[in-house]
Amino acid sequence: MISDIEGNNGLKSLGNIPDAAMYHSVRDPYSNGNPLHIAGAIRDITDERVIIEELRRSKEHLETSLGNNLPDTALYRMAYKSKDEKYHTEHVTAQWEALTGIPFEEIFENTMIFFNAVHPDDMQNLREAIIASRNGLTNLNEEIRFYKNGELSWLHVTGHPYKHNDNVIWDGMIRDISVRKMTEERLRFRKQNLLALSRRQNVLIRVLQIIQSSQSFP
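The structure assignment produced for this chain is given below.
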């Protein structure tokens, strides 16, 4: 223990380094009084650790505040842990349950509940996108159909991956884009109808031209 080591020459301040001191030539009480020569420095990093912790808390508070106030959007943190080779949900904001219909306690217990609610036709693309994001540390960006309490909706899933120890972490967001998708579908349907109407008009015009041509002969 540091408190068990007595310095023969005490601590000397390092004037050019704040909150730091140098020690040397100390006696170890557990070595029968034999001198143990050590040279080194001690630095008080309490203030730095306090600042880092305050920054971390401020970041989490800002993310939570933003996530709780973004319309139709939830922030999430998901981890792929190499130890069990599974995905784990570590954090979601207040809008999560309203967007997905999945209670907080259930998604924290089993992330697969979310994936099981993805439309089967979109699950393969989502799986491949997540694996590519995990392996290459590239951003995740997928639009998927999702069954929320049995009703079909559209979600836009984005995420930024990074390594932490042997795990991959995604910080991202999920946004409900059902209104936009329904609008796009209505526009697509209207465009198809207009094209079909235009084709029928062209056919009708051609038929009238043929009739008029046939009537012009005696």
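Interim note for the steering committee: The chain has two domains: 2-44, 51-181. Residues 2-44 form one domain.
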